[in-house]
Amino acid sequence: MLVPLYEAVYERLEVGSGTRLLGLGCGSGLALLMAASRGAAVTGVEASAPERLALARARLLRDATAEAEPGTRARAEATLVEGGPADAADPAASAYDLITAFHPIGCLAGDSEGLSTLLEGAAPLAARGAAVVLVGWGPPERCATSGVLRVATKLADPMRGAGSWRPAFRDDLEEVAQRAGLKPDGSGRVACPFGYADVDSAVRGLLSTGLFDAAVGATDQVQVDKELTEALHPHRRSDGTVWMPNVFRYLIARTPGRPES
Known about the structure:
By secondary structure, this protein is α/β, with parallel strands linked by helices. It contains 9 helices and 9 strands. It has a 7-stranded mixed β-sheet with strand order 3-2-1-4-5-9-6, with helices on both faces.
């Protein structure tokens, strides 16, 4: 669903041969695969979803010599690490010149704190002035999925804690960058519609994001599935497919870099 976002960021930053990229919370590795196909050397870290990391390994390590895009070299090296940024440190390697945090924030209460922790761990691995890309959900009125995600808030309300849905705020990304000591250096918005073959596929896809985990804990899986199915009906088209237009925002920030030795 976020492929248009990855493409826009990589095009703007001219990711390609010579780029050394660290992907935070890399999940199933699609964004890393796209960067590697452009010739970038990529490292991904993932601490909370080992099954997705296994998929990332399958994606990145198979066909390692496959032909890259015209004008770039064959797929570059790829390293995947279960854990945090510190686990990816390699004293013998050059510093990263691009760090990406493509998992969108601004939708779950407390998600920005988790991103701040990741950035703190990644900062010592970055070169002076390295680009750091943060991503967040766009305004609720521009994101059709926002109405569906409110199901998570309604069902998880008794918990009243981290993990419940909240509307995205305009300065979410800037606040995270400021806390991490990063300097904003541009931003953009990208349309990323969520499309599914049918309602059942949409339910499975949305549940896989983790945004409904608190709701499942507060009620049960059957109740969450039922409420989600009902919330998706307004987005069902005549052919049975589900279509929800969304806008995501990205912020490019820069690291202060390592002090001169």
